[in-house]
Structure formats: C-alpha cells, structure tokens
Amino acid sequence: MFDKKPTESGLVLWRDSSMTLQDGVKLKARIWSPQRGGPWPALLMRQPYGRTIASTITYAHPSWWASHGYLVVVQDVRGQGESMGDFIGFKQEASDTTQTQSWVRDLKECNGRLGTYGFSYQGLTQLTAVTGAQPPDCMAPAMTGFNERDHWSCEGGAHWWHLNLAWGIQLAALQAKRKGQESHWHELYQSLNDGSYLLKGKSILEKYDPKGITLKWLNQCPHNDHEWVLHKPLTTWLRQPLLLIGGWWDPHLLGILDMYQESCRCGGSPELHIGPATHLEWWEEVQEIHLRFFNKHLKDKVGSSSGTRKKKYLWNITKKEWKVYNEEAKEEALGISWSLFSTGLACINSSDGKLIPEDTGEGIVQIVHDPWRPVPSTGGHLSPNPGPTDRSNIDNRADVATFTSSPFQKLQQLKGRPSLEIIASSDQESFDLAVGLSVVNKNGNNVKQLSTGVLRIIGKCSTELQLRKVLLQPLLADIRPGEQLRISIAGSAWPAIGINPGDTRFEPGPPGPQCNVTTIQLLLSESKLLFTPLISAQEIH
What we know:
- The protein is of the alpha+beta class.
- The protein has eleven helices and 24 strands.
- Strands 1-2-3-5-4-6-7 form a seven-stranded mixed beta sheet, with helices on both faces. Strands 16, 18, 21, 22 and 24 form a five-stranded antiparallel beta sheet that branches. It has a four-stranded mixed beta sheet with strand order 10-11-12-13.
- A hairpin with a 6-residue loop joins strand 19 and strand 20.
- Helix 4 packs antiparallel against helix 5, helix 4 crosses helix 6 and helix 5 runs antiparallel to helix 6.
C-alpha cells in the first residue's frame, strides 16, 4: 500500500512506500520513476541518513537517474529515518538487504532487473546478504570496505580519532532527532561546529549514544584480531558486475582495493576507478561512469560480465590525468628504493636530512614529541581537511624530521603503496610514528603531500631499538625533472589520530596532563622507503 499518491516533479514521479520485514519491522522508502512507460530496471540505495537526502552530497538526485529510465528506490535502514526498529549498525543489514531486494524486484513498476549503488555505509549494505540470496544484477559500491578495523576505524594500530568521533556524533544526532530530543541534537551539533568534539567527543558519545558503533570501535583494541568483525560478501555476489569507486584521499580506499582483489579471486571482472576524491568531494564524471555501467548491465540484453576484461582507471595525482591499466598485465612493484641519511639535524635543517636512492642509510635523529603542541595532521585521507595540501609549514617545525632527495634528473612514476622501514625506539612505553610522503617543487617553496601513514608502538618493545614498518596510503604520481621527493616523520598526527600519552595506563585521545613528552630515536642504518603493488597478493580471510 502506498503512503502517498504519486507526486509529479517535472518528468519524474515520486512517492513514499513501506515494506514489512519477516520480524514485523516496517522500513520506509521513497520511490522515483519516469512519468510514462515502464516497467523499468531498479536502482536501490539503503542508507541511515534519511531517504530524502539520497546521498546527494556525492550522487545526482534520484530524479536524474529516473529521467534516464530507472525506478529509483532509496530506503531508510532499520532504526533510522522513518523506518521502525533499532539501529545497531552493519550486523543488522544482511537479512534486511536480502528482503528489501526481493521486495524491490516485486514492485509492479520494476521489470525484475536490479542494480544497487551508494557509498560508505550505503556501499557495504549492497554486499551483505544471507546465504543463498539472489544477487543483484550489478552493484556499484563506493568508498567502503569489509573489515570494521582496517577499512573503517583504525590504521597502523591506532584508532582514527577525528573520523570515528565525527561520524559517531552524526549518528547520535540522527537518533536524537528521531526521538524528538532537541536539546541533545543541539549539543551534538554544537560539538562538531565548534570543534569541541575532538576534546570531549568520547564522553559525549558515552552520554548520548553509549551503544553506538563508533564508540564500540574506540573501546576495542586495534591489536586484537578477535574483537573485530570482518563482513564476508557471498562469492556469488562478488562474481556479479561490480563498479568500484575509490578516492586517493578517502579513508576507505584500502577497502575498495581489497574488494577489487577479492572479486577477481572469485572469478569476477570488476571495474575500478580511483580518482581525485576525498570521502565527500568527488570528480564530476562519476555520475556518467555510473550511468554507463547501469545501462550496460541493466538495459542491454547481455547483462553479465562474461568476456569482459578487468580494468583499473587510476588518476595520476601530479600529472592530473587518467591512466587505464588492464588487469591481465602483471603489476610490478616500483623497483627503486630510498634510504635515509642525516648528521642529526634533520629536525632543524631542511638540507641535512637526505633521501638517497639505492644506498645504505646512516645517522641518528632525535624527535621530541610535545603533546602540548602536537604536530597536526593536514590533508591526506584522515584529517578534518582531507585532500591535496602544501605541508611546508608543518615540515618547518623542529619536531618534524625531513629527508629530501636530490632533484630528479628524469621523470619517475610512483605507483603502489609506500612503506617506510626504520629502526626506532622511545623513552616512553608507547609512541607513534606519523609519516608523510611529498614532492617538493623546483623552487623549493611548495611541499605537495602525496600520502600519509601512521604506526602506533605499545609496550616494552617501545624502548628497544627495533625495525618498524609504517604503511602509507596508496598513490599514483609522477615526480618530474627538477622536483624532489621527501619523507617527513613526526610523533603525532593530531587530530586524525589521538595523542599517544606514552603511558599505557591511559588511553590515547586528546592532549591532556596524562600525556608525556616523548623522545623518539631514529636509527637510519637500515631505513628504506619502498613501494608494493597497488593490488597486493594478501588474501582476505
């Protein structure tokens, strides 16, 4: 039964409708359709932010998709928007997704063909289903992942701080609005608006959303595999045509890369696009990419991926153009490596720290991390201002060690996932290594950050000189003649990552009196900057 009569909007009609799940919970959806004709193939999005917004922060409005001959269904997931039930995060979605897809296929306006789309939470809802469920005819998950630790909440053994808190407070505010708790909503919104969530966010979540998914993540140990959920899409679903959208500055990029790899392993032929995008700011052609994909698999007579070639469309960050790679061509790691050299003044003199190709590192550098004035995160994939950025001001700080190569004599392409191997210890029982990889322009007055990464070391081994490995965000970039490559190392990346107090009695979080000044010693003799292939051979279990 329809909740409203069809409403005309230009050449598109819309209405609200409900479905009842097997447990009696009703889920509300908004449906857009062309004004004439039909039945049509359906596009489904399931999201927790309210069906009327329809992820228009990144996608064209549903009426645009409907104007191209699709029945578009955007549903409030259980416990969100106007849907009944309690919202408990990803674990509720397998059964609800399966039942919803069956309901959409049975709508009188649907011709039986179904595609799904959406990013982030809406990306994962496409891939969760009960065993034996009929898969959609095609799926377009963007900026999402399977692993609640590695793809959603942690990096290098440290919790994402800004991102976990900001998303958790948004979800809590949605619940406050749903329950009519206006004062709660205003306090939650204010904490984001004035930035106080960075200092008080965890206590705010404990007060207003104690069972929320992000607070649960923040209370779990990043080093304990058994505490974390790994969602496992059905093999039959991963073999379906997949359009995977990622961004070089999106925190879920590793999830998209793992999804691509897992689909290939299952016998699928996914299409991958990694572009100049943060989580919320995409490149303009994304809508047309989706439309071509849906037209091919939902409107052509042959809707399967049989006989197609796996392809990767990758945006070159510095060259600012697309490169197409066929998966059949073996992907090689970057053959060259760099070592670090310093006389001990890499934190003080920008010309002292050197990045030397194919050589042995040498020297010792001391970095003093002061939690009163932590080194800030900027740009990249985890900070509050993600994306490309000039980090010159950060590199000029005396608590940041920089190592810069000589000007390149010929063009060098950097492709894959960078990692820095370095021997390090501290005078405290825990410390962080926050690493940035950048290109310095010919004039030396711009330091364009290409990639960032972090590693958290905890326990007795912190005070011992041991080889550490910091993994950075994947990239594709060209270093042109006259430009220089730079590695920057600091003891914090606030507020992307909570401050490491250096004392295991206290949890990482905002700066506070419990946080110790930490001296980090870098022994450069075995240091290496390396690159591994973009699509690794590591299996997803």
